[in-house]
Amino acid sequence: MNKNLIVVIGPTAIGKTSLSIALANHLDCEIVSADSRQFFKEMHIGTAVPSKEELAQAPHHFIQHKSITEPYSVGDFEKEALDTIDRLFQKNDFVILVGGSGLYVDAITKGLDTFPEVDPKIRKELHITYETKGIEHLQAQLKVLDPEYYAKVDKQNTHRVMRALEICISSGQPYSSFTTAIKKNRPFSIIKIGITADREVIYDRINQRVDLMVEQGLINEVKSLLPHKNLNALNTVGYKELFTHFDGKWELDFAISEIKKNTRRFAKRQLTWFRKDPEIKWFPYTGDVKEVVTYIKEKSTIK
Predict the structure, then answer these.
(1) Considering only CA atoms, which of 43, 8, 81 is closest in space to residue 287?
(2) 11 is in an annotated binding site
(3) Where is this site: Interaction with substrate tRNA (predicted)?
(4) 12 among the known binding-site residues?
(5) Do the annotations mark residue 286 as ligand-binding?
């Protein structure tokens, strides 16, 4: 346990990338991304992938390493990221894990629950149902089969709704019955750093980021991905709204306003997820990185 995983988390657009790079430079270590939207090489502007300049400042892993056409689950990430972290610990006492995807952070820090195998036919049938009847039909089905999970799941996250239904239908039991919340022991110490700000500040930063994405070419990026719009990786904020625009259903200005609104909602859900974790030490987004370093040294197993 003389190795330390520094986890940098917080809502979108709060400054996790810049803090993680500053910490990596101070600790002379590498960064593992747990941002599930940044895994895919075809998605760049709309996922706020670190710039070339930022990537050059510290070694990063799990940034644009997959194609949107490749199946990639949180279970795949857990295994590959733990292997990478283990390898990085062989040359340094610190590794930084950074991201706003709570489930992916938990996969590394707590471990995933074990679920039964799913018949591929069920998965295929659910995809067909989604394409023909929409997410609302799947939401209603989940409400009947597992009202407990329905009450807390992000109902607009198609992947999670479908995953829960797969388990319900395959096993004949509620998805929530397989979520034990038993934390798995990891062979390293975990120090969690949260970055936050007043809600108005977070929302303002989100609005500014979306405007910058549009300036950087988000519209053309999404347009180039139109042939793949039904892929699960693209069913995410910043892309699905513009697909609706290209389908002729929304004006461009309205689609952009919806991106801002849905990103703000996403940030609210992120904070709700993270604030349930008492192990997180919160710092203001305007804080001095030296304060974070001091805290890490106090909590570190390396003295």
Answers:
(1) 8
(2) yes
(3) 101, 123
(4) yes
(5) no
